[in-house]
Amino acid sequence: MSDGPPELAIDVRDLHKSFGSRVVVDGLSLQVARGEICGFLGANGSGKTTTIRMLCGLLVPDGGSGTCLGLDILKQAPLIRRQVGYMTQKFSFYEDMTVSENLTFVAEVYEMKNSAEAVRRIMDRMGLVDRADQLAGQLSGGWKQRLALAACVLHEPKLLLLDEPTAGVDAKARREFWDLIHDMAVDGLTVLVSTHYMDEAERCKRIVYLAGGKLVVQGSADEVVAASSLITFEATGGDIDAIARQIRKRPGVQAAAVFGHVLHIAGTDRTQLLAATRACADPNIAWAEVRPGLEDVFIHLLSGTEGAG
Amino acid sequence: MNAFSFRRLWALLRKEWVQVRRDPTTLRLIILMPMIQLLMFGYVINSNPHNLPAGVLMAQPSKYERSIVTALRNTGYYNIRMVATEAEAEQDLADGKLLFVINIPANFDRSVDRGESPSILVDADGTDPTAIGNATGALGGLTNTLRRDLPPNLQAGPAPPPFRFVIHARYNPEQISALNIVPGLICVVLMMSTLMLTTLAITKERERGTMENLLAMPVRPIEVMLAKITPYIGIGYLQVVIILVMAAVLFHLPIHGSVVLLLLVLGLFIASNLALGITYSTIASNQSQAQQMAQFTMMPFMMLSGFFFPFQGMPAWARFIGEAIPTTHAMRIVRGVLLKGNGIVEIFPDLWPIGLFMLVTVTIAVLFYRETLD
Ligand SMILES: Nc1ncnc2c1ncn2[C@@H]1O[C@H](COP(=O)(O)OP(=O)(O)OP(=O)(O)O)[C@@H](O)[C@H]1O
Ligand SMILES: [Mg+2]
Fold first, then answer.
1. Which ligand 1 atom is the nearest neighbour of the CA of A47?
2. Which of A96, B135, B149, B349 has an alpha carbon 20 to 30 Å from A164's alpha carbon atom?
């Protein structure tokens, strides 16, 4: 073990991974500081899961190197696994075992000192007490996710790798989930969490955006927005659905999306965007330039990399 | 990280046990499979055909002929007709028109009367030993048939039986008897069930997606494999006990040797099958592939182990392969212990090949067990 806690919980450089001839992760470098909550974003198939698997030694990278919690990802994978909580994208606990049996199994496998107590505490914290004797396979999707999260924080890991932990979880549970993650980060836990939800991305201290296995942008939400040099106009009033359909085809409009009563159009060329708003003039509609949100930026990024997955 | 932890192994064992328990269909199969198979094969064993075609060939007319033929008829096993010549008898036996030819030799009457206890040669068609087993068995009880007809000086007092039967099994000199099939059956049933069950062990984890989680946890391959094998050793023993009790009660299987020794040895045999199953399980990428591997194995294992065909009757190449199969050796051991009362010294030559087989397969399994998802 290295002396003293390393500053970076994750520090990997130039990771490569291919399946057959398909390059899935292509020269990815990633640094995550200790205690940081890092959002991992990207289109479907952009290589998020593959990267996370390489970080905890489940896949061997074809190229590149690095450390996780100061341990070499190539040579010390078994040691990394002891200190990492990995939550798989697909539920992968035992469906023919009850909630408490699953958790007890995990606690025992990690050789926890007071495993019965630890299981009881985590069930309490995650509200699983009432479902302790229910078979995991009979839980609803959201409750399965809670069980999986409970299981992966049970052994008090130093680093959490969460692969879409809140997919299919209701809003309230998601809120609780993120509150919990923030609570744990205060205690020094580092979190790398992949997600497709914008509100979750905004709760991350830092965002890493992946496309085609390459890192495209990273930074705080504000930095990502600034880096995109995206210009957004907002339209209100009138028949914005019809306008959206027309304006989408105009040159320079890279994205046009309706959010309830407002329409956002986004592009990188101001003159072309202005021309587009003038072309779709309608007395009922008021146009205004607004600061792009994270969602605009991601839709922009996603449309730029379509077909990557 | 320590290379092996009993606590982790215990946790894995408990998990396997819970999962086995939660799967009542498999459990039922585990109990029923040996029973059904034993009954199925046992029906063949127990089939007790009567009225088998038998020819009586007399070298010269005999005054005792009527008594002997009547006694044979009375057993119910023989459908007797007279055969005129040896050539005819030979031909009918070859054609399967006769299953037995009973040769009453020349000077039979005189020998009996002198108390010389002459022999009657019974040529039996040995191709289907189960068919003739009971019929030949019944002959032993007939040798005193003529006592009433004997001259008075021979009737009194202990004397050798008036005549003997000498049974000559044709075509199958090794004569696998019905009893020989039960020990073979124990091995074959054990092989089928244990191989089938463990073959699914690791592929099941992979197919259900739980492998990713298991790999992400600090468990070692050897711990996972031991945990997968152990419950099935217990299950295998349960099957052995079921088969032994059924065979003893229903088929009157004699147990001449030590049951404890037998159980110890069978433990090794079960473990060797499980090791093979685990190996398939790690090599195959899904359950059906693993299952096919197991099925492809069971057929030759059964064929070449001496279960279906007498081992000594097989061509050299088949015997060569057969020697590498644990079922072959297990079968010899079980036959030896049960029927001949063999001890550890006698069975050792068949013990180490099973151990070696297991060592090789476990090594392969550990080599192939991937600690990553690649
Ligand atoms: N074991 C594998 N064998 C072959 N191809 C694979 C394998 N695992 C992943 N891939 C491919 O690698 C690409 C990236 O997959 P990955 O699961 O990392 O994407 P992702 O970013 O997690 O996507 P999503 O948001 O849908 O979860 C996909 O095109 C996928 O088909
Ligand atoms: Mg994924």
1. 18
2. A96
pLDDT of residue B222: 82
**And the tokens for A256?**
């046009």
> Is the Cβ pair A82, B1 closer than 8 Å?
yes
Closest ligand, as measured to the CA of A40: 1
The whole-angstrom separation of Cα A102 and Cα A128 is: 12
| Residue B45 pLDDT level (bands cut at 50, 70, 90) | low
Report for B77-86, B110-119, B158-167: range of highest mean pLDDT: B77-86
Distance of CA A260 from the midpoint of ligand 2 (Å):
29
pTM of the model: 0.76
Instruction: Provide the shortest C-alpha distance from residue B238 to chain A (in Å).
Output: 24
CATH level 3 topology of B52-170: abc type-2 transporter like fold (3.40.1710)
| Domains with residue ranges and CATH for chain A | 8-225 (3.40.50.300), 231-291 (3.30.70.100)
Pocket (CB within 6 angstroms of ligand 1): A 19, 24, 42, 44-50, 89, 309
Could you list the beta-strand ranges (E) of chain A.
8-19, 22-33, 37-42, 63-68, 71-72, 84-87, 159-163, 190-194, 206-211, 214-219, 231-236, 255-259, 262-267, 286-290
Ligand 1 pocket: which of A15, A28, A50 to mutate (most atoms within 8 A of CB): A50
DSSP A91-119: --S-TTSBHHHHHHHHHHHTT-TTHHHHH
Say what the ipTM of the complex is: 0.82
Instruction: Mark out chain B residues that contact chain A at CB-CB < 8 A.
Output: 1, 5, 7-8, 10-12, 14-15, 18-19, 22-23, 208-213, 215-219, 371-374
Q: Write down the pLDDT at residue A308.
A: 36
